[in-house]
Amino acid sequence: MSAARLLFAITALVFLALSRQTCNAKGKGNRHHCSPSSCGSIHNISYPFRLNSDPNHCGVPGYNLSCQNNLTVLKSKTGGKYYVQAINYNNYTIRLVDAGVEKGNCSSLPRNSMSYYNFTAGDIAPYRLSSWTYDRSKNILFLNCPKPVKAPLYLNASPCLNGSYPCNSLFPESKTGYPYVKVGRTRASDVMNSCRIVLMVMTSLLGKDGNIFNSTTYLDIHQELAYGFELSWSHVYCGSCGWPFKYINDCIIGEENHVDCGVNSLIRGVVLAAGIVEFMGIIVGLHLVVCLCAIPCVIISLLHKCRKRHLSLYGTIEDFLQSHNNLMPVRYSYSDLKNMTNGFSHKLGEGGYGSVYKGKLRSGHNAAIKMLSKSQADGQDFINEVATIGMIHHVNVVRLIGFCVDGSKRALVYDFMPNGSLDRSIFSAEQCTALTWKNTYEIALGVARGIEYLHEGCNMQILHFDIKPHNILLDDNLVPKISDFGLAKLYALDKSIVPLTAARGTMGYMAPELFYKNIGGVSYKADVYSFGMLLLEMIGRRKNLNPLAEHSSQIYFPFYVHGQMVKGENVNEVGDATEEENTMIKKMTIVALWCIQLKPSDRPSMKKVLEMLQGSLESLQVPPKPLLYPEEELVPKIEDQANETESSSSTLS
After folding, report:
1. How is 421-454 classified by DSSP, letter by letter?
2. Rounded to an integer, what distance in angstroms lies between the CA atom of residue 122 and that of residue 354?
3. Dihedral sign computed on CA atoms, order 198, 202, 206, 212
4. Which Pfam families does the record match to this protein (predicted)?
């Protein structure tokens, strides 16, 4: 092929890529001179739609509708049946309702699943969920749970659906299950344990009047189901711009129902069709030569980049260690660790960070060796931990004995804690260490002292961001040690609000300001919140959230505890505490409730926490009921606290 032909072909492609074409969206329908059809309340059935009784040329294949019992029916490729509620020729949408949904009968349910997957699988083709229709729709999830669920995002559907269960194949466990619906986007973690997803459907976000639907009860949801959802069919007109344009996924709808079809969206089609035909000879020849020369170069380049990345990683850590060579911890080799752990034979535990092994130092003292996983590619968690713990010397912070940086191997060597982590002592059914209330109180004081030291006792402010029972270790005298500083951040002491680009921590212990920016900035008060949640779990010997609790008031433990304190009743459910121990429990409870207040400004500092724990019970006031969300109306209403009228100024006698 000559250079002139090559230049001509390139010029033609560039021209196509830069040009755009506008086509009349109504033109094709007008050419066929078909009168609109009607069925029931739908009076404007015209191109591209047609009834089965209309001539074939009046519509486009795939857009056939039928008229059954005076209702306009659309059937999907998978056999799903939908009733057409409206066809809009201005914004190119069609509104559908599942045939199983009856208006005014809240026990009726959709028969077909309708979610984003249906569009990716082509079940509803040629209709599509365009960006416009996607923004105007929302997801509805039908669930069946074996037990009642108390969660703000779960709407109870029992009043409507219990009676229809025996007749509905979607809920075979009708006599034992509890039906719920959840509105909006749902992650796997949002589905409560043992609940089963029955159906996923879509509804319109806006009603007929253009206002957003108010989805506060299942009756509201059913009205939305009866209103229907919208799908797009605008892309059908791209074919009227010429044969290449029918492969474009989206058309831009302009004024007067014109569809703007851009050739720049067609580059892939041109290259695969006309471009390949025009360039076949040259492309094959050039690619053959280029591939023979380039493949070895690419392989060498990839190997070089891979090696450079690893060297950069190790260089980052080595640079850090060189600049902090005055740190007390000892540097070990990987072979040293193998000898210390007897070939890593005694594993103590495992987590997302890696594995922990028991070892013995040359001095004869036991140690815990944490081998970091390779997933921590940038070594930042390693640097955080060495930099943070390496300069800390406090009785309530775990001591870093040494570390290892040997090729790709990275490890941290700590003092061995024979009583393990606190969660083993408070959550396990066969508690490894029987904690008395005196022990619990002393552990709470120790953890508070450790956090207070991190916040104010060093030349830098250290925020831990992951205070939880698993990260509190107990030595042989049950002295608590704060561990795992992989998420820790160091800031200047005068920084009251710290910059943070992403939430960090463990769900259930993370402060609300990490999610809701409007309630206050992120500060040391985030650790105070985590300490409060930790303290409540120490008091209750249970997780703060327990969906399987016998009483609804105990599902979220902080609510139950607050209710008990306001009523002047014991928080200790076992009832085996002495008067002195009950005083300790009440003090810890009040302090914990202050620590988990929604707004950071309402929480005390750790210094104040220590004063409250060590002060008299009479000087402490019960704080307001803790909130889960900034919007008070989103907090679940707990049955046992429905008549609560006490104010936040209540005191204990």
Report:
1. BHHHHHT-SS-SS---HHHHHHHHHHHHHHHHHH
2. 42
3. positive
4. GUB_WAK_bind (PF13947), Pkinase (PF00069)
Residue 370 annotated as part of some ligand binding site? yes
| Three-state DSSP class for residue 351 | strand
Q: State both tokens at 322.
A: 């060189």
Does the annotation count 466 as an active-site position? yes
Cα angle 70, 73, 77 (rounded to 5 degrees) comes to: 160
Name the DSSP letter for residue 272: I
DSSP string, 98-159: ETT-BTTBTT---SS--SHHHHHTTTTTT-B--HHHHHTEEEEEEEEESS----TTEEE-HH
Nearby residues of 304 by Cβ (< 8 Å), 6 or more positions away: none
- State pLDDT tens for residues 143-190: 888 888 888 788 888 877 764 443 344 555 445 678 888 887 776 667
Phi, psi of 525 (to 5 degrees): -65, -15
Handedness of CA 78, 82, 87, 88 (dihedral sign): negative
Residue 370 contacts residue 377 (beta carbons within 8 Å): no
Q: Give residue for tokens 């009866």.
A: 226
- Which residue is listed with tokens 């294949």? 61
Find all residues with CB under 8 Å of 277, minimum gap 6, and list them.
none
What does the DSSP 8-state code read for residue 8? H
pTM of the predicted structure, to 2 decimals: 0.50
SS3 369: strand
CA distance 387 to 603: 29
Q: Which of 123, 466, 484, 527 is catalytic?
A: 466
For the stretch 519-528, what's the b/e string if a residue is b when 16 or more beta carbons lie within 10 angstroms of its beta carbon? Answer: bbebbbbbbb
Helix (H) or strand (E) holding 462: strand 461-463
SS3 label, residue 215: coil
pLDDT digits (tens, 9 = 90+) for 348-396: 888 767 889 999 998 888 999 999 876 554 566 677 677 667 778 899 9
Tracing tokens 């992951």 back to the chain, one arrives at 466
Nearest to 196 by CA among 149, 241, 151, 233: 149
Residue entry with tokens 């889960």: 628
